[in-house]
Amino acid sequence: MSEGSQPNLSAREALDLHSLHTHYADLKQQRESATLGMWVFLVTEVMFFGGMITGYVAYRFAYPEAFRAGSVHMLFMAGTLNTAILITASLFVAFAVHAAREGNQRWVVNFLLIAMFLGICFLAIKGYEYHDHWVEHLVPGPWFQWNGPDPRHAELFFVLYFFLTGFHALHMTIGIGLVAFVAYFAHKGRYTPEYHNPVENVALYWHFVDIVWIFLYPMLYLIGHQHI
Amino acid sequence: MAETLVRKRTYFWVWVALICLTGLTGGISFINLGEWSTAIAMVIAVIKALLVATFFMHLLYEKQKVVWIWSAVGIIWLSILIVQTMDDYVTRGFLPVPGK
Prior knowledge:
The complex is a heterodimer. By secondary structure, chain A is mostly helical. Chain A has one domain (23-221): Four Helix Bundle (Hemerythrin (Met), subunit A) (Up-down Bundle). Chain A contains 7 helices and no strands. In chain A, helix 4 runs antiparallel to helix 7, helix 5 packs antiparallel against helix 6 and helix 6 (151-187) runs antiparallel to helix 7 (197-221). Chain A is elongated. By secondary structure, chain B is mostly helical. Chain B folds into 2 domains: 1-61; 63-92. In chain B, 70% of the residues lie in helices and 0% in strands. Chain B contains 3 helices and no strands. Chain B has helices at 8-28, 35-56, 65-91. Chain B is flat, with a radius of gyration of 19 Å. Chains A and B meet through helix 2, helix 4 and helix 7 of A and helix 1, helix 2 and helix 3 of B.
């Protein structure tokens, strides 16, 4: 379609037309495909974390006492605070989607910046915890030190802890990057109430990573029944 | 408007519920309830995850049935993975096998 062939298009209608890929009938079909595709991707992510979670379930069943002893070394307040931070970040991402659906891009940017800030706070606290484990010689490997019984299987708890939280932190880092990307395009005025699929899909990803943490928190922090 | 516009107040109350459930599960964890501890913690985690999925991820307002099916597929596949792994580990000691 050449410029000027549709002289009556408003700027927003022109932007919507620009956003529609040629192989979709309309923006509704494109949006539905994007949502479905994102959910299929999230199911593969469930299986990605599922492998590690299954390993956790099998070994915790085999060595419940060693896992309990390992969990006592988690920083309970840091983990609980981080859970609250992630839930709050999810709330602001949901507000950002709300603003996008209303076509209020200024508030899409503002809410996403708040969520990014909270995500960075989460990673900072996680880094503080990792530092604490490092100093306490709880990182698996040649420097691992354990005074209680069954050090081998306590070490196994920490292997699973570092893989689960490490991959979760990697997902958080990617999530913060994606949110920054979407916030930039919202700032540029790229989205309309009809087309804002990237905002919706990045939000779905963010909430999924939140759900992963909702399960990691009781699995790793809450099984010791005493907190330091 | 393309999608259902969920009221901001709804999101806010879901957030309040999630924070309360986090405090609840953290508080209960100080008490050793034996095998019930894990069960209660996981029930609370599932409720929290369902709240996030239904409201924040808009599953409740999703008009495409196929999206609901895919979200269920995630749970079903994960269940197959965990249950069929554990039915081996849990039952290994059930029968006395000669030479074991």
